[in-house]
Automatic annotation (TrEMBL):
Belongs to the 'GDSL' lipolytic enzyme family. This is Acetylajmalan esterase. It comes from Buddleja alternifolia. Residues 1-21 form the signal peptide. Keywords: Glycoprotein, Signal. The keyword Kinase does not apply. It comes from the Eukaryota. One of its GO terms (molecular function) is hydrolase activity, acting on ester bonds. The keyword Coiled coil does not apply.
Length: 383
């Protein structure tokens, strides 16, 4: 091993142990169960159980390579976004809805499926936008799964109400695919802008229905800065340097996401007026992700910030026809130096960083307390 490699390994080891110690502390929250609707960022193994004639990349190595060392159906080299969040809430034992073990007790059930959308597939079909042949379970279908799960596990209305009251529900990130499929298939920013009210209304409809079913805590995290993602940067490549911001992200796409997130936040405020006794929050996944990308861009491996670790070709190490996991597609040596795993999803390391930024403030808002052995510290005082 060369001296430089050793230094890199050593630094990564320190980073890894710092990250894990943040996730070990014992946390007590005023809820006991987690439910998540979303896409690949939070899919803990559903997409590989959706029947499909096309092979699913996440079912094979190099997915899962860094942790636990074999594929788990997560679309990263290890864990993903919600694994870290759940651990931070002290509720780490999650099950993918499509692969639950009846003899196990879970802290949470995940309905998220990679490649899923908010809007129904016909919306895209009628506009000539193709949806991938596998996975893609729209939000409305994920909600039906949830109802079926509740009804079969909690036969009485009282049991269901108690369960809802003791749960924390997450609705998204999921809309990235509604926008991403359209943009990568040549739809203009102006056209996709017209989808925003429809996407937002559909999300709010689901949120309202969950609240009417008894949900008391609900978060709608909004959307990450898609204009920084290798698959978008590749598909919408421009020769005009003024189309890019100082990090190298596409301004027009990030402006679209910011205005979409603003629209969502207003809709969340309106829903809060309708249900003033519910904890209903927006989650700043946009800011958290941008912070991680910015830190990486100005760090020692800045040139890797917008590159896929697993991939090949082009300026961003991404080619949709030679996707991660295809024959002869290389994987980077140190995934922890990268933010993007396969050009569409994050690395284990990046998910951990983003989640820490998002969850720390949420823990306080939600009234969670952190205990260090026998002493319980007041989070708002200690963090
Ligand atoms: C289900 O869980 C039980 C108890 O943990 C375990 O013994 C069994 O092997 C599991 N079944 C499957 C299919 O994973
Ligand atoms: C950018 O420049 C290259 C090389 O000059 C050219 O082949 C390509 O078509 C240009 N792309 C756009 C979007 O203008
Ligand atoms: C924690 O501390 C804050 C500020 O000192 C206080 O307002 C709050 O009531 C405390 N919460 C608990 C659970 O002790
Ligand atoms: C004094 C004491 O109980 N220390 C324990 C605190 O918690 C850590 C992690 O669970 C243990 O390793 C210590 O032994």
């Amino acid at each position: 091993m060369k001296g430089q490699d050793m230094i890199i390994c050593f630094c990564l080891l320190i980073l890894a142990s710092a990250a894990s110690s943040q996730h070990i502390q014992h946390v007590n929250c005023p809820f006991q169960y987690l439910y998540h609707f979303g896409d690949a960022f939070t899919d803990v193994g559903n997409s590989i159980h959706v029947p499909s004639r096309t092979p699913n990349p996440a079912a094979r190595l190099p997915y899962g390579r860094s942790s636990p060392g074999w594929p788990t159906g997560r679309w990263s080299d290890g864990l993903n976004d919600f694994d870290f969040a759940a651990t931070d809430f002290g509720l780490p034992h999650l099950a993918p809805y499509l692969n639950m073990n009846a003899s196990e007790k879970y802290d949470g059930v995940i309905f998220s499926v990679a490649r899923s959308l908010v809007l129904d597939i016909n919306f895209f079909k009628s506009r000539g936008i193709k949806i991938p042949p596998y996975a893609a379970v729209p939000l409305s279908a994920q909600l039906r799964w949830f109802k079926s799960y509740l009804n079969s596990n909690f036969p009485s209305a009282k049991e269901r109400a108690t369960r809802m009251e003791n749960s924390f529900l997450f609705l998204g990130d999921i809309e990235a695919n509604d926008i991403g499929y359209a943009l990568t298939q040549g739809k203009s920013i102006e056209e996709v802008q017209t989808y925003v009210p429809l996407i937002t209304r559909a999300q709010i409809r689901v949120a309202r229905e969950l609240i009417r079913m008894g949900a008391t805590r609900l978060i709608i995290p909004g959307n990450a800065p898609l204009g920084c993602f290798p698959y978008i940067l590749t598909a919408l490549h421009s020769n005009n340097s003024r189309d890019y911001d100082e990090l190298g992200c596409l301004k027009s796409v990030n402006d679209l996401i910011v205005s979409k997130n603003d629209y969502l936040q207003q809709a969340i405020r309106d829903l809060n007026l309708e249900f003033p006794n519910i904890i209903l929050n927006y989650g700043a996944i946009y800011d958290g992700t941008l912070e991680v990308i910015r830190d990486a861009s100005y760090g020692p491996n800045g040139e890797l910030a917008l590159l896929a670790c697993c991939g090949t070709g082009g300026k961003y190490n991404y080619d949709s026809k030679r996707f991660c996991g295809s024959p002869q597609v290389p994987v980077c040596r140190y995934p922890n130096q990268y933010i993007f795993w396969d050009g569409i999803h994050f690395t284990h390391h990046a998910y951990s960083r983003i989640e820490t930024i998002l969850i720390e403030p949420a823990l306080r808002t939600l009234g969670c307390t952190r205990s260090v052995n026998s002493t319980t510290s007041n989070l708002s005082a200690s963090v």
